[in-house]
Amino acid sequence: MRFSTLAMIAVAALVATVNADLESVAALYPPCGLDCTITGIAQSNCSATDQACICTNRQLAGIITACVAVNCTIKEQLATKNASMTACGVPIRDRTNLIIGFGAGGGAVAFIFFVIRIYAKFIVPTAHLGYDDLCITIAMTLLVAFSVLSVELAEHGFGTDLWTIPPESITKVLTVRGITPFMFGVSLLTTFQLYFADELLYITIISMTKIAILCFYLRVFPEHRFRVLVFCTMGATLAYMLAFLIVSAFQCWPVSYAWTHWDGEHHGRCNNVNAQGWAAAAINIALDVVILVLPLRLISKLSLHWKKKLQISLMLSVGGFVTIVSILRLETLYQFAKSTNMSWDGTAFGYWSCIEMDVGIICSMHTRSSGKGILSTNSGITAGETPAERRNQDTKDFLPLVDIENVRDNRPGIAL
Description:
By secondary structure, the chain is mainly α. Helix content is about 70%, strand content about 0%. The protein has helices at about 5-10, 20-25, 30-45, 50-55, 60-70, 75-85, 95-125, 130-155, 165-175, 190-220, 225-250, 255-260, 275-295, 295-300, 305-315, 320-335, 340-380, 385-390; strands at about 250-255, 270. Helix 7 packs parallel to helix 17 and helix 16 (about 320-335) runs antiparallel to helix 17 (about 340-380).
């Protein structure tokens, strides 16, 4: 594992702590780290008690870096770096509150919207549960699990520097994060296990959210050609979910190698996880765009004033914000992919993934409520009206959509 220049400068702080005897300082380091530090100091112009020189001498840092990389195991490298950073007085970085805030906090907000939606289904006489409600319920249930794991990840060190996490916790974090495409959370082993779990959850949640919106489209738009396109998009989304669940679950062989490979002490092989992540993100954004533009063609053909068309388009396209979040997440994916300090550098990638899931669920529910508002406010279709009464209305603002809450199984507009 490579060490940055600053990191290895810090390693050189071994015997530099003023007024500390060499034996007590040396006890903080693994044997190989101690040997490399002593050797490096001997080859430099720094004395063993000159803390400022040891912590800032780049030539010394380079010597120690090369020595540690060749002679120490990954666990010993991390232990050496942690001890040296402490000896040089480098502040401990901690962004675990962001993981908890966006993971648990964002999930709580989405859950409130979900409860309000389901509650409305039971208090509104004409309301009934549909396939879109089933899909969003599955997504919300998994999001609750994801939020719990986010707190667990933070408690195991995700959001801090990798070398500050005990080795057993790192593995745990990677296991949990493995369930969602790419996040991490009382040992290094524990950390990698958590990461693996989150990876799978993420894929399922964003896919079920998309399917919920598509089911809503089927309940609103009766046009045959449009419904065929919706079913095709739904099939593509299901294929995306199943394909990347399988690919992510078996990204390494044996499977456990996904959360044990970090220490260099286990044997196995892994796919190109970075390429897999970029492919998943690209397809995810493409599906978001397709779902976003699907209803726009029908809306453009309506005999409405352009302002009303714009209003309807904005209401049905509220999910566009999710697409924006997905694109913003790509930048953090790039940083995460090239990182050697994933528990710290992956923080932004983690909370943007949380935001994407939370906003996706919230927008899917807003889209549905917006659709009902369109039907009752803009189209002249209201509950309790007879067909004759509807025909007698001024048709210039008529929106040819079915009434979501009053459709029968034998009328157009039923999803499945």
